[in-house]
């Protein structure tokens, strides 16, 4: 195991404020860092860093990494193109600069140091008493300085971030002046930003690809990226007439060189087969010029987000497209994120589909789990962690799944802006068995299709329970379920095979019981609230005085009332059966909370930054 | 620091099942254990064990102990009068044999061992992978074998019991046969029992006692202990006519020699001053012959329970008795616990009061905190941990306490049979400041007056919040508040000085809001429940169908509804003011959860029992 053994106590300025008086305040200089830390053994074994994201919108900081599951550690390679007096890199719950876990490279103008630090609730930096970012090396190259370091998933240091599956919010800060004391840094005052990634990429082996594989690029043709922070660009593509049924077996992003930091995410949607034709379009998705009919292009064929790699279907399955009953029209949607408002940047990014005419044994399908889009599921305002749960019941899977079951291999979690966590759990005979997908740092701004680490088999009679956690602290009225961006959703799109007729297995509280809740609230509270029966469900929610009792009782209602189950072949057609006033699935045994593994005995070093030699000065 | 350093790996039978075949099954023998464990240093520094309880009703096992707060450890001395093939001693949440943390002394007939073990959910024994009971020595004496061992309060071993303030349930089991494998032992199948003690006695220094101190013994005169498991014995005593006001400055138990294991607890009550005289009585408290008027003797003067020592008042205060306005009549109540149903045992136990005519600066007082005795505070059936909270509000302390405040120095927690935990917290300006008294393993069968480790100062405007946790898993109907043994209470009798007029500072939910709850439950649930307005509160609670919604909403009600505050000079006379529909005190900042301190670096040994030499065999 590689780790730096040089941790002799050093009297570094950051800790002792030594030489503060003799500092060269007027020095305008940058520095090059030359590695002096002896690497144990030779070059890092982890020389390959398959995952890469730019951290900043200019792409001056570029992070590559790999994941070692046997070591339970991530190896980072950070490319710093224009180093000044150092860099802060780290992780925090939701990308905030406060309470963050940070690796810091800093220079006082003479000497440079690397260490593990943390920021407190005010953004103030502190050296960590346990050093868990382990410097593996630094390398000068024409393009900049490469820093190599390692971090265990879990350090058991309460000041450290626990690296888990799902979204990780990376943050960075740039040191533009010499640093004489780490304690003097307040990260909130530095230039910096955040980048969301899935750090713990699954270790899935790449399936063998068919020899007759062809490619098709769905790309925006020479778009001039609008000079505004956020643009959703829409482009309509079309399959050739008479294009027969094929299987998509993989796809990958095609990002125009130089725009890596601007192309935030891309999706290819297939249009509804009901319409014979769709108009061409190439423009912003929110434009008034956009034809109405494009709203019927919502069936996901492919989705990519920054940091993601190519997506491979399992060897036995492919995503069908082409042929009768399948629309020839595709919509490419690109989210350009341009916070520095670059002008005139041209882009032809898109997604390259790899497909085969030699159909694989199974068609892959996509199923929606979670909550129905209805206002009856609502979140009171001012809630820090409000939980809503959607159920795919045993009765529905009993009816709709084949005896041999289905295999879920990927998942895309979805909420609107208040979503903070999403998890789907598989339950069988009332006992939770397996997490299908979980994201404890979910962000609505980072919705990837994620391969699962382990394929999940679901059999008739199983239950799939999807739980979303919302934060409405910044809202003054209730947030109801619905399609609007300020309404909420709780959805897990699971990708599975073999495809079944079941497109949607979701639930919502029984509306009759919700009416009883409104009546109850009306009678219990002294105030006369307009709970006129003709008022809409959102209006009734908006008029509730949100005291603790009304909040608590709403939670109790959602945890008790029977549900209306949507066990549907398509969004409009239910499977035959009684789906109203169904009992809530009961869970008699929960999955145990995962206990983080701590680093093995020869653990992290005590608190002491690692000194680096300052190389030649360079004019800035 | 003393700890046994002999932990060489040994091939002991318990682990390897060695010699199982060659065991002497017919051997009827006991053994003497001779210490072979070398003590580091000389004799234990902790040679004095001020606290003592018998563990079993015959007094064959006697536990003495001391507490070292600097070391955060308890030193135990266990006297085993008739050792057979070993003993199990340990601790568990509520005295159950399952999931217990155990020190085990066992013999296979040849060799003897001491080790740290735990019992699983079925009572099956397992050697602990971390040995935290540290054997300090063993000593043979005419009366039996003394085992000395040490245990840190907190070991950070998840299999170990955390020794906290308040009640600790000690358990023991007797090994009557040779033991060839620890794993073969199921503690639930052994003869054994439980004893409740306060292990962590406060380290309070004994105040100086007045030179003119006199004693008075309130003792049952030659009672023949009834041959039944439980007897509450009542005896009336009388102060001399014209006995002037004195201060009780301490009291101690007087237990008839030989009856140490039978006298469970004793209390001295003073009768109500309203009555000129009380009849004499000496008999069971539940006898039909007991005069009705004795029910007016409820003012606690002194209380003792098994394991407790003498009780000292703080140097500045004494408990007033005698003089005008104070009844001359006292009632002694003794709880005899006689599970082996001994016959004809004579007893003259009681309490010795130490008092002085030289009055101290302050009279001590007793104040009741918690919940009013009313059925409006109820616990649904089948609850594992249901919480009720009683409030002494800022408004009441503002009105009733002197500017200089009062000082609480002792506390007696009280619930009926469903009580499992009790805690009182002091809150000031909405922020929790200090725990007044807490018992996380509270038992209604062990209600001592406990000296506080730290005196708690309470000032006008402070709030005292008392929270009780109940278990009603064995009940099929709701448990309402009240005086009956199957009704519930939540009370903390705090002992304080200087005495004020405030005798009672308690609360209960506003009855109007409870009516709204009954209406709500009635309307929400489909069933028609008899919620006739003329029905009593208990009857309404009994008729509720206890689904999760009705349970949850009751919790929400108690957490939301305004309260009726009893801020009383005596049980009937309120301080002037508006006490109905008072807002619930709001807490903006909670006390942090205590983080257990783990043993320092040179910690416990790895799993290996300590071998002891088997001495001479002895016929049994």
TrEMBL record, chains A, B:
Its main location: cytoplasm. The chain crosses the membrane at residues 21-39. GO terms for cellular component: chromaffin granule lumen; chromaffin granule membrane; extracellular space. Its cofactor is Cu(2+). Keywords: Catecholamine biosynthesis, Copper, Cytoplasmic vesicle, Disulfide bond, Glycoprotein, Membrane, Metal-binding, Monooxygenase, Oxidoreductase, Signal-anchor, Transmembrane, Transmembrane helix, Vitamin C. It is found in: Cytoplasmic vesicle, Secretory vesicle, Chromaffin granule lumen; Cytoplasmic vesicle, Secretory vesicle, Chromaffin granule membrane. Residues 590-620 are annotated as: Disordered. Its EC number is 1.14.17.1. It catalyses: dopamine + 2 L-ascorbate + O2 = (R)-noradrenaline + 2 monodehydro-L-ascorbate radical + H2O. Pathway: Catecholamine biosynthesis; (R)-noradrenaline biosynthesis; (R)-noradrenaline from dopamine: step 1/1. Residues 59-175 form the DOMON domain. Homotetramer; composed of two disulfide-linked dimers. This is Dopamine beta-hydroxylase. It comes from Pachycephala philippinensis. The gene is Dbh.
